[in-house]
Specification:
Order of helices and strands: HEEHHEEHEEHEHHEHE
Largest sheet: 7 strands, mixed
Bound molecules: S-adenosylmethionine
Strand content: 25-35%
CATH topology of the largest domain: Rossmann fold
CATH class of the largest domain: Alpha Beta
Shape: globular
Number of strands: 9
Number of helices: 8
Radius of gyration: 18 Å
Structural class: alpha/beta
Number of domains: 2
Distance between the termini: 27 Å
Helix content: 25-40%
Strand order of the largest sheet: 5-4-3-6-7-9-8
Amino acid sequence: MGAEGHRLVVLNATLRRAGSLCTPRDCPTARLIGPGYLSDVGFYREHVLPRLVDRACGTAEMARWRADVTDGLHGRVVEIGFGSGLNVPYYPSTVDVVLAVEPAEVARRLAARRISSSSIPVEHVGLDGQSIPLDDASCDAALSTFTLCTVPDARLALSELRRVVRPGGTFHFLEHGLAPDPDVAVWQRRLDPWQRRLADGCHLTRDIPALISDAGFVIDRIEQRYAKGPRPWSWFTIGTAVN
Ligand SMILES: C[S@@+](CC[C@H](N)C(=O)[O-])C[C@H]1O[C@@H](n2cnc3c(N)ncnc32)[C@H](O)[C@@H]1O
């Protein structure tokens, strides 16, 4: 995800600010989410985090990955975890429409500018990748970038993608996940509980290729390597799979 150390510093600073905005008295739901950081979880999750993700995932380094993962998309495309629409500028002209699934309202608002300056129509069709309100086999392709780490049940989301993508359709993925190096994986397991708290359920330890294959997709292109940034966050998997 690029510059992850910096992102964590920014997250911590934001949590301190959120803590000063929300005291336990005026925010009954306020709770400790880390030593010394008091924050209203709803405020942080709904208003702060989508903006942080928009910044952290919108770098020039990330642009290259996004151009790569969207290459070859065509027809009706369902995108889970659409976020603030950072993939929109990279949809190829072979895409007819993107059906976006995204729960965060602020992210959907941030996406509006990108959507309006794109020639490819985007329709928000749902809030949860684990329960996609589309008919069986109604899409030609699916896209997920940095979402299988966050969606609570990645297996369920993948089975939904298999259901809505037609047989022979493709799944394009770009995700971070469990690194093959034992010393990195140890740190990923140590940091995982903190990551989940700070980044809205995002896991560092998901085995992305195994999840995709176990769901029944047949991976036909895969590339894995470290992106720029601290290694626990930067083991990236990019590729395509056939339904
Ligand atoms: C790290 S962000 C990635 C956003 C975007 N895909 C990108 O590449 O910039 C993870 C996204 O998954 C979304 N998300 C979380 N739970 C979800 C769910 N159950 N279904 C679909 N999206 C979900 C979050 O709101 C967030 O926009």
